[in-house]
Records
---
Amino acid sequence: MNQLHFIDENGSFSIEQPENISYLYFPLASEKGIKSSLTPNLGGDSKTDQETFLLEPVSAENLHNNRSCRNFWLISEKDGVFSATGSSSEQETAKFTDYQDKSKITAGFMWHTLERNSSALSVETQITSFIPVEDNVEIMYITVRNLSGNTKDMIPYAAVPIYGRSADNIRDHRNVTSMLHRIRTDSHGVLVCPTMSFDEKGHRPNSKIYYVYGCGDNGHVPECFYPTVEDFLGEGGTYTHPRAVYENLPGVQAGSAAAGKEAMGAFRFPRIQLTPGEKAEYILFLGVENSQEEIARVFEKYNTPDKVQKALETTKSWWKKKVNTGFHTGDSNFDRLMKWICFQPFLRRLFGCSFLPHHDYGRGGRGWRDLWQDCLSLLLMDPDGVGQMIEKNFGGVRIDGTNATIIGDGDGNFIADRNGIARVWMDHALWPQMTTKLYIDQTGDINILNRQVYYFKDAQTERGSRIDTLWDAGQGSLLRTENDDIYAGTILEHLLIQQLTAFYEVGDHNIYRLRGADWNDALDMAPEHGESVAFTCAYAGNLRELASMIRLLDRLSPKKTAELIEELRVLLNDNTELFENIKAKKDLLAEYMQSCSHRISGRRFTVRLSELAENLEHKADWLTKYLQDHEWIDGESDEGWFNSYYDDHGQAVEGFFPNEVRMMLTGQVFSIMGNVASQKQIRRIINSADHYLYQKEIGGYRLNTDFHELKFDMGRMFGFAYGEKENGAVFSHMAVMYANALYRRGFAKEGWKALKTLAETSLDFDTSRIYPGIPEYFRSDGRGMYHYLTGAASWFMMTMITQVFGVRGEAGNLILAPQLTAEQFDSQGNASVSLVFAGKKLEIIYENPKRKDSGTYTIASVTYDGQHIQTDGSGQAAIPRRILDTLSDECHHIIVKLN
């Protein structure tokens, strides 16, 4: 029986006895930097960055191993001990028995409420956790209600272990760094200010103050404190049986100090007496600041139940407003799931890819792909400022077509790669163009291609194959000319350099080299002879799309030419015989790279836009034919697919092998999306994917079949157990991109099959075991893994809006081209999507009273605010930008009648 239930249209949900499910965690964060994770018993951690962890860092296995959670205790001399989080030795013993507490979690965007009912004490507790949008503090709002017919006499305790240092110190000098702690108590709680932070790089004075404060609704402040772990647990005590609580040990008073020990935000409140039905309220503050004054400000801002409840409502409203996209289909649970999918890109922007329990790698921030793919969702939900963000992000591109891989704070801040390690992901040039094209489609701002942006410069040169010994960090991180001027080129120039340098960097089969990896980071063991057919297909599509963007610029701009850096001229070679010659292509690329390995001339040449577009189209056409001729694998009469990779021995990884078939999804996605596969081939690819990769009960399309070998000449993914992560799991990102590719080529039913299976598996709590949303992947038993922080969410949302509902931009005009299947309409034949386009709030309502299927209906009429738009009776209609610009800021209803 599915235990998770939605309780409103915004996706808020509830689940009973959540502690009976392993690995659950919920994210909380603010725009100010604090990031938390909460388990059903309020375990998890809290931090602002890699160096600043308020609570002890956790990985997935710590979620059930650790007992050092946020806790609130109630002690009754008559009835015993009760933990409001269920984290006492007695409550753990009673788990899965008839004596287990009744518990329930209710949660929504950035808020989480844990309710617990103790039959032993006859009390009910409720802990609502949230992080206000504007402050670096996690607030726990606690209520205690007497459910008995008698007056209850109880002593409350708060207990939150304070870690207070870098995540690195978990295994690097943990005990030594506790000696840096300077701990003190004041009238409201416990504060910890380490004297310094240090690692092998050096010693740095510390100014961070970590704190746990508390107060009661009746003006009560803590009456004594247990500021160290040893004080609170007592000799031989544990976090589930702390002697300070069980034995009512005396604590220290406000104004006390301790040093050199692990810190504990623990204190005892005055004894309370609750009459039947009466409740008491408490507020705990978990935070980190740079000054005592800032802590006092935060405390004053939220130190009463009224203030907290007001802040909670403000927080809820803020995030509801942020998630300004909504869907109405024939499945209300799917519509509510989509709210969480639309929320996930915000979580990735705040958390990066390092700060939730399964994401226990890296040091925070986002990678190059994340920068661009997160912009996809922002363009659909919060487009203001995305143009400027795109411009700044192009500042990470090097003149050799590679890019910075260490992303600094804020937009457009890039850092030289750590330790001079050259790492080139061959797919990195793909994503900036995809995002820029969507931006132009949604806004009509084709002139973004003419904007000037600097190039990133560090010691890496010639596409990571050499170190520039003439460069030093004192020169800054911007490319300079021979005259020592900082050079800036147009975004169009950046895009050309990225696409063209990739075109010439080929391997032994004239396919783009794999280098360190492509999108699949786990294909990292074929640096010499590895080639990515999958992304060669993608780049073929990119060349064609860049050409179309240039033709649009040519059509709309009075200037019919582009000025490009002189060194780039050689990359525009249009000799088909050269394209066939692997050595000549490598030599040409080497010539270009050597000409700009340290500085560039700064000279420019002029080329006609139409000539430039034609040049790229020739390259795309040649690539397409070459891939068709060399990489197609013929299966049975109705099956076939494209090889995706060559390994480090130069062997194709897919096809028919002794006793097995080897197939990967990635090559099929990009051959379809890049318009390499023909319509007939797409049908055969679908049959093959359904035959070899599809497994409905675990989410749909696996990333690959089982190769039954470690395959050290390809990547670490083959060391994973089959069905885990990149080795044959249902990897949501690629499954969604498969759906997107199918929709783009007109295969709506097949695309919906991929999306629907992912959604159904996510919603099947008994299988997925996750809160609502799309995880990074579903493992071999269907459990959702690496939840929340995945690019799949952006692609799922984009596919639903631009392909399924067909609401997308084209040079700034609004296109309506639905591909909804019959089942996606409600019982009256309606389906709708709410979003922002051209700065206007729109609700597009499709009326299909006969519930016809995709491909069988046409658009009969389109009206907005009662005004008719001329249609041509096809499956597509357009609303010009000039009409949209005249609309008011209120929500406008666009009604599309289907026939």
---
Amino acid sequence: MSHFSDNYYELRYPISTDSTIGLRNAQLGAIHAIASFNSLSKKNAGIVVMPTGSGKTAVLMMTPYITLSSKVLIVTPSVMVRGQIYKDFTELKTLKKASVFIGGISPPSVYELKKKYSNDIQDDVITSDVIIATPQCALSLSENNIKDKFDLVLIDEAHHVPAQTWQQILLNMKDSTQMLFTATPFRMDRKELKGEIVYTYPLSMAYRDGIFGEVRYIPIEEAPDKDMLIAKEAERVFFNDRQQGYNHFLMVRTDTREKAKQLEQLYQNETELTLKRIDSSMSYRVVEQCISELKNKNIDGIICVDMLGEGFDFPNLKIAAIHTPHKSLASTLQFIGRFARTNAENISAAKFIAMNDDELIIENYKLYTSDAVWQEMIVDMSERTIRKEEEIKNNLGEYIRNDGSLSSDDTLSLHSIRPNCHAKIYHISDFNINGVFPKICGVGENVFRNLSDNTVIGIGTIKNRPIWSNTEQVLDVQNFLFIIHFQKETSLLFIYSQMKSEIDYQLIAEAFTTNYNKVPRNEIHRVLGELQEFEMFNTGMQNRFAESGESYRIYAGSNVASTIDPATGRMYSAGHVFCKAVADAGPVTIGYSSGSKIWSSSYLLIPEYVKWCDSYGLKIANESIKVKTNTNYDLMPLPHRLKNFPETVFFCLFSDRTYSSSPVVMKNPSEVSDTILMDAEIKIISISEMEIQVEVSILGFSDTIVCRVDGTCYCAESTIFLKDGRNRVSLVEYLNNYPFIFKTTDDAIIEGHEISIGEPNAIIFSSENIKSIDWGRYKIDIRIEFGEASEGLRAIQDGLEEILIQQDDFDYLIYDHGSGEIADYITIRETDHKLEVVLYHVKAMGGKRYNSDLGDIYEVTQQAIKSIIWLKSRGTLLEKIRDRRRSDHCKMKKGHFQKLEKSLKENKLFTSRIVIVQPSINRTVDLPSKYQEILAATNFYIKNSGRVTEFGIWGSGGELDSSITNPYQQVDMQHA
């Protein structure tokens, strides 16, 4: 007999509940499947597929008992995982915690094989019930006759098995029962994972059961200084999450130890994050100490080289900064699974930050992989051909300092400077070559000017106090390169700057010109002119309808233009593009973005860089150039320069960047609140041809933002301040980086200095959307939205609640009133296969007569459009409801939240409707044309969002419409 067979009858299978700890569905299914497989004749290894975080270790530990094994070999992918399983098995900690074992059961004899097998450890191996080893040590054991004593081999993280070492272990121990555990039973190299899959627990069920949480991808637009941009965004997201009360930690991921060291220095110099670096060269004790510091909250995160990707359980690890993506889908899923765990307090969605260069392919599930074409393209794209040395020297010799000395007199040779091709471009009316760089650049006297080609070079030195020092002593010194070039023929100003915020570019431009404007996309698009054989690697498209959700879609990979069709062209406008093409001189890479930027993959000498700018400047200014890529990208409409604001503007919302990671509002100069910017109320005050005034209100503060036609914002007196990452900025500063998006009643979108024209003829008003309620029947005061009404009457919200309860055709009714609300009332009906959500937005009548006051409909229609964001998915709605409940909102009027939470995790069809409740709208009274425009545009935008099936209006006029009493039935009848 053996330890495992002796204790077989001690096994219990308690089911985990909300009040007791036991085995999860995944664990119960897996262990019974293993028992079933073990009862049959076994020719192959058994494969158990369980998502990361679903409790695979407990199943692995139960397997020797359920199979009545005598001696077990467990092969783990790393020393760290080996140590974790050894510690767990020697105490049976996980199984006892889950009540699989109760009482005083003794653990098996466990031996951790830390070196290759030899005769001097033979007795330890023979007398132990369980041997735990990494592949090389396990291989040495499997090559010895002692292997015959093992009747069970368990492989953890079995997607490694096709590797030669792992495969040889299984081949050497083919007479033993073999069970393979993995979350990803496939590999990018398509090598077979041999065996019979005995149990698979799908990721959708893991999400439904609360094991696998929400994940978000936060893209970084392709640009130089990739690591810097990712680091800054990671810091911003980290501090925003912490300020919202989430106990999140960060992992910085790269692929080499040398790169990890560079990133360690970068994060230390450029952020206020406290990180530690770990890699496989470090001892287990060092790694264990680092993990301990992480769990004890002594550090903010870790910098890893393929560490903690497998077998590491720390659910608070929620933010990943991907500097180098994994090369296989299997590794990527393992990696994501580490961040999607849900078994911790005060955690939210996992966030993955990466740049959308073509090392990154965004698949349907937003998984990372590699792309062979891009791999070829990025292999050393630096420019290697140097023009004649004499031509270069002649040009560089024309640069002079402020004191008149030549650049050749300097220790630093301009010949050694090779900027990567990147430029921010402005239209300007004048150029002052003697302009002085702003102080933030730290240039001082390190300025070189070339009068013949209107180019200025500045080399800045920025000195900072280290983040770890509390003195004023300056130790951190950084150097920055700036190149200012004015193309006189086109009146275009090109700025190369390693400081890349919008305000930095503006300050530099103001130093050399008095008037500057960004280049609109229809003009900058001309950089693609006169090229052939296009291959699009990265494209971005602005969604015209999906408010604040997928407002910007990015495709990356090879030949991404093929994904665009005529329908896409109607729904989206061109955003950015990066491509490879062929010019007369040979292959080139070129990209442009809505930020008035162009870039390439090349690194050039300064004279070559100036010529690069000039060549594309001539294209941008050439109105005769008609770009034809002969790809489906030609189907995309292009935004144009905004010359004046149309009077048809009726709606305003924040940038998509605000909705992906919203900054937190400051209570006072030194204290942050728990309120995020996206909960602010936005109201358009006035519209003129040259500016729009917008009132933003939150936490009792109110700022009037003046949005100018050139895309800039102004505020006479700022009272709203934000904590965005670690930076404290005013609202107007934030909006200058991430401008408002305005929409018009004739299907145009305005963002910054650009306007995108849609299909105005598609917006048609229909009074059929207006349903009439007999408010008097319910004794409702239509001029009171909520609270106390006139004697004998009640507020609209109270009356609406009675109407909804009377219809009684839904499972859940939620009341959510207040700043940041989803809607005043939310109803949810659940069937076997579908969840149907209806949002009701309520406003009282303010005008003297029906259909007389535009104010009656402006606010409620804007709230309706804004609420689309919460209908993006079941998970998005659930997360918002949770947030509102934490702030004592979202009160359940019918149904139980725990049941609703479970329902929203199930894989059911998710449909939604939006209804505005405004008694001032009367279908029997003539509607002014402006009323019709606003209501028609609201209906058009909402129904084209892709997430809402119907927009309805509950107004006045006549008897109660019976179809109102059952909105779900109404939808069903329409589908029927």
---
Amino acid sequence: MTSLVMLLVGLLLFPLSAIAQSYQNVSLGSSLTTSDVTSFWSSPSDEFALGFQKIGNESRYLLAIWFNKITDKTIVWSANRNNLALDGSKVQLSADGRLVLTDPNGQEMWARGMANAQLAYGAMLDNGNFVLATSSSDTLWQSFNEPTDTILPGQVLNQDNSLVSSFSDTNVSSGRFEFILQTDGNLVLYTVNYPAEATNAAYWSPMSVGSGYQVIFNQSGFIFLQAKNGTLINSISSNVENSRSQSMYHRAILEYDGVFRHYVHPKSSGREPMAWSSLYNIPDNICLSIRQSTGGGACGFNSLCSIGTDQRPRCDCPLGYILDDPNDKLGSCRQNFSEQNCNHESREVESFTFHEMLDTNWPDSDYESHRDVSEDWCRQNCLNDCFCDVAIYSDDNVCWKKRYPLSNGRVGPTIGGKALIKIRKDNSTVGTPNVEIRKKKNQSTLIISGSVLLASSVFMNLFLILLALLYIFKFIGKKRKRTAPYSAVPGVNLRSFSYKELEQATNGFKEELGTGAFSTVYKAVLDDENGKVVAVKKLRNMVTEGEGEEVFEAEVNSISRTNHKNLVQLLGFCNEGQHRLLVYEHMKTGSIAHLLFKDSRLSWSKRVQVAIDTAKGLCYLHEECSTQIIHCDIKPQNVLLDENLTAKIADFGMAKLLKKHQTQTTTRIRGTKGYVAPDWFRSMPVTVKVDVYSFGVLLLELICCRKNYEQDVANENEMILLEWAYDCYKRNKLHLLVGDDEEALEDIKRFEKFLLVAIWCIQENLASRPNMKKVMLMLEGSVEVSIPPDPFSFVDSI
């Protein structure tokens, strides 16, 4: 039974309205003080309590609600997280109808309820909700409507309700992350522009596309997003392990590290000590999920994020760097050495060396890149450049130069490449403090020279200034001539071409490499010193919504920031009048469509590698980009091979550049017939799972070396590959799919594994499809492949 079906069963077994809450009144005038933290207002069963908890070693107190029957008294709600109370503070259910927190001087710190609102009592309920009520039991205020970082079974997050993480595991004040159901219906995890409360960048969303109305945590332990009409949109936490046991406590919390986790804890059974265990967390890998243009990322600037053995993110400063604030373990790092002196004649090249780190990167901190160079060349170039603080040497021989401060740092086995971190040698003391050097780097050398000239004679000053001006004008003139045709999008190493340049490079758009629904690709030779061969994609009547140059360039900018060896690299663009063209690296071998369905087909071992390469590229688009990209048209024609037969995904940015009304079929569906997920036909929100489905079709074509639909077959049951492949699997007749491929027959175990992965991907129930990260791990053998259900048995009843 799938997790979605279990969720529906859970909803039927444990409707919210069926849980009656008992309570015991807190009468008007009742109060609690910080001087006696053993006193509190408890629920009837003593499951929860409201009172004061001491925070840290100092005499600071939090007015909070906690689980009262477990040893650690886990807090689930607080009133004054950003303004802790001092000794002598008091909370009182006042006679004027309010719950009021006052400091030792009697000054009001926090209050809820309304004066003269006919408040009769307060009550701590057995579900963890504290309410203020009238004599007729009408609720005037409840803590469930003002959550801090936690939600409990029976609790609902309405639109504009949010959870805000704490700052750290010891600092309960508001932190850097927010989980919010927005008024537009989108459920989003944001980074917060700390210390301000404004959100910075989204790093997770279930792609509800504006239809969310409530996030519900029901009594069976399921968390889900629901539409206004009651339709279930997304299951947020659907792991059913222990979830139906009434002997477990549940809570879900947005923790200080930015991960939303669902926890369970056994109720008291005389087997102390017991602890909370995690059932589910979002996102799977926050180090890879956060990639933002502003801010430091999952950790601070210059820090590196990695996932520890406890599956929690860990932030570390690289060698030569230290924490800017020793009390902020997730914060920024700063250099612990004096910087390279740009004004020094030798640039202090001999005073610096590199610390190497494999599978390490700070994406989006690039200011320059060089292709087809050696690692030694990359090292020397960075050493000679006083602005270069780190160089990343990638597996495809690209040198990416980065400058301080570095953002979105991450370490992990899927990153690839090698980081060369420039540090000062231990015995080198030359240089100035790095704060001063940073200032000097931003000053004009002309101003520095001018200050020296002022100390000379007037005549000498004038003479030198005249020479300097002549030199500057000459330099600027040359630079303009050199750089005018190469203007780039700010912050991206991307070339902007004129239409005339590309017309000449393609010899009048003469040699066609391929054509699609909205574009034609031409071979071109750039007019530069290397005569680089590229592919120019000429878009037909294609602009983004808004139809403005700035919007088009913004999308191109976003696409250009992708950097993965299994994606075709965007090198430049043209945005001139009605002309929209994209310039890509040239893939000499062409698409796998030309090598898959012909007699001279790719070998089994090459097809295996193509499948893994393509999965890696899609995983990067879905989980590691700064803005998630859904391809929407995965097919053999969009998987290209370079001269080394490395597979790279093409057209991965076309979904971003297309207008919403532009489609490849007569419906409002994007994609190609045969590869389109059934989700499109159900008017469901488009998620990354549409790409997973298309990849499943492609994977079947790869392992079977045939198209997904063929009329010219001996048996009509073989016409549709998806159905035939599953039928062969059920009847244990894999040899029919393998055919005369002797290499595949010798590797039949791997063939069967890849077939099972493909069947998982083509499940009509999108909730059953794995994400691309899991697909990649299954193909590589890191994760076991379980037996999939019938992919065509799903009935859409939601």
